[in-house]
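chain below, 130 aa
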Amino acid sequence: MNNLAHVVLLIIGATFLLAAAIGVLRMPDLFTRMQTATKAATLGISCILIAVALYMEDLGVAIRAFFTVVFFFLTAPVAAHMIGRAAYFIGVPLWKGTMVDELQDRYDRRTHTLTSGLTSERGIPDLPDS
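prediction:
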């Protein structure tokens, strides 16, 4: 039964990593490629590390695997966000099928500032009515 859990987790992890690789190749622009790579690869690596921790049956290995999974879940989204933000700031084109660009009228490319859309005439954010 224990070997079955290892095999299932390894297959699930490899499937997620394969999906991430296919997504990077098939997606039309940088932003969708980042989304597929970040989510699928993080889940794939997590499943593989959990399988390794279960297989080794050692507390030290399990703790290191746990902290590695936590590290991936904390750093992968932040890194993808920063890469996406930098790409948008320098003007990497969006896919032609993109429906909505929510930053289009709110981002000033000269000053690299965003407006919230909820500002008054003086530039002070308006508070919602309570």
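The chain has a mean pLDDT of 83. The first strand starts at residue 107 and ends at 108.
thats it, cya
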